[in-house]
Amino acid sequence: MTPFTSLTAIAAPLPEDNVDTDIIVPARFLLITEKKGLGRYAFYERRYETDGRPKPDFVLNQPRFASAAILIAGANFGCGSSREHAPWALADLGFRAIIAPSFGEIFAGNCIKNGMPPVVVADVAPLIADAEAGRAVTIDLVARSVVRAGGTVIRFAIGDGAREALLNGWDDIETILGRHGGDITNFETRQRADQPWLWSNG
User: Fold this and answer.
1) Torsion angle, CA of 65/10/109/38, rounded to 10 degrees?
2) pLDDT of amino acid 202
3) Distances in Å between the alpha carbon of 144 and those of 66, 77, 119, 154, 167?
4) Cα 50 to the chain's mean position, in Å?
5) Average pLDDT, the chain
């Protein structure tokens, strides 16, 4: 994964509560198992007419948010099913982080596994206003803060384990190796010496 330390970017506002994973990626697209290209199906029902034409009033179809790398959402964003396709699709659309008052628990975990911080900010109204005005927002994961264009700092909480994985760009396996790689190597070295027959194939 790409490490995440800080990001200053235009944000796209989606101030709607309870946007579930089926809205983010409709179930009929779940047979797709490639992350790359999945972004074209994100928010499919919201983004496209039945004949495939983009809906001009949907926020992510508006040219001013074409470069948005932060999504500012309503409460309970990503609730519903556990499909990992949801953060895959958002990442493929170009989002590197999501700010919301709360997240679906499994969705938040899947975001972390995909290098995309789910940043919990209780009151997103000022950030929605910044996004609507085209003002960039900064997420500083090192300082655990969101910085508005005017300099206002909003602190947020994130677990130490999740923060460490995001800062280092570690997936689950890399997190284990990062924290316990030395112990694993030491164990293998001892076992090779004590029980060499277990390592006869290398």
Assistant:
1) 30
2) 62
3) 26, 20, 9, 9, 11
4) 28
5) 94
pTM of this prediction? 0.90
Residue 56's contacts (CB-CB under 8 Å, 6 or more residues apart) are: 62
User: Where residue 1 falls among pLDDT bands split at 50, 70, 90?
Assistant: confident
pLDDT of residue 82: 86
Task: Please state, in angstroms and rounded to a whole number, the distance separating the CA atoms of residues 64 and 133.
Answer: 10
| Range 172-181 contact pairs with CB under 8 angstroms and sequence separation of 24 or more | 172/113, 174/1
User: Using an 8 Å Cβ cutoff, are 118 and 112 in contact?
Assistant: yes
DSSP string for the chain: ----SEEEE-EEEE--TT-BHHHHS-GGGTT---STTGGGGTTHHHHB-TTS-B-TTSGGGSGGGTT--EEEE-TTBTBS---THHHHHHHHHT--EEEES-B-HHHHHHHHHTT--EEE-S--HHHHHHHHTT--EEEETTTTEEE-TTS-EEE----HHHHHHHHHT--HHHHHHHHHHHHHHHHHHHHHHH-GGGGTT-
Mean of the pLDDT values across residues 118-136? 97
Other Cβ atoms within 10 Å of 10 Cβ, number? 17
Contact, 85 vs 35, CB < 8 A? no
Query: What tokens were used for 190?
Result: 């001892």
